[in-house]
Write a structure and sequence with these properties.
By secondary structure, the chain is mostly helical. The protein has one domain: Hypothetical protein af1432 (Orthogonal Bundle). Helix 3 crosses helix 6, helix 6 packs antiparallel against helix 8 and helix 7 packs across helix 8. The structure holds fe (ii) ion (FE2) (2 copies). The site of one fe (ii) ion (FE2) has 4 residues, from loops.
Length: 195
């Protein structure tokens, strides 16, 4: 049966992504992106199921967690998301929208978010990073990076997020305080030990 656009498409995709993601990735990234995307979407007349699907699938190309040098998960993500959504008989025009979201979600590539949906997901993706400072140390530490390396990386990432990726004014308002708090923690760390 074709379950186009109904709740079961979201539920099916949720199940697939949850299985592929690590527990931390699911709880502290994917679900946060879904939460922030739906919050931002309240301001727009936009299909909420589409927002949820795009948020769930935006990082599908790097699940399970991929190599740190991997800068192509958006390309793989398009293929994976397309496979999953076609299997669920999701409409082609809606799949195309999600493909575009995935392609530009990283913000650092040449393709920038243009549509409301693309902007919502790119903003929500960046917003999630302000809630999870300790997780970056856990993740990157597991991959053998030093404390100093991770601190530098996180600081640059948060700066990049606030200056380039968070383009919606509501998103800026929502993260401003957290950004300053994160910055203070990082500054203090650097004072304790001059990296
Ligand atoms: Fe990503
Ligand atoms: Fe992400």
């Amino acid at each position: 049966m074709n379950n186009v656009g109904n709740l079961s498409t979201v539920k099916e995709v949720e199940k697939i992504v949850k299985i592929r993601a690590s527990e931390e990735d699911w709880n502290f990234h994917i679900l946060l992106v879904v939460k922030y995307a739906l919050l931002l979407a309240k301001n727009y007349k936009i299909d909420k199921k589409q927002v949820e699907l795009a948020a769930l699938l935006h990082d599908i190309g790097r699940l399970p967690y991929s190599d740190k040098k991997d800068k192509t998960h958006h390309i793989r993500g398009v293929k994976e998301a397309t496979k999953i959504l076609r299997r669920l008989k999701y409409p082609e025009n809606k799949i195309k929208e999600i493909q575009k979201v995935i392609i530009c979600h990283r913000g650092s590539g040449s393709v920038k978010p243009k549509t409301v949906l693309e902007k919502i997901i790119a903003n929500a993706d960046a917003m999630s990073h302000f809630d999870t400072l300790p997780l970056f140390y856990y993740w990157r530490g597991k991959r053998g990076e030093s404390f100093a390396e991770i601190t530098k990386w996180v600081e640059e990432k948060l700066d990049r997020n606030i200056k380039k990726k968070i383009t919606l004014s509501q998103a800026q308002k929502m993260v401003r305080e957290k950004y300053l708090l994160n910055k203070r923690i990082l500054e203090n760390l650097k004072k304790v030990k001059n990296f």
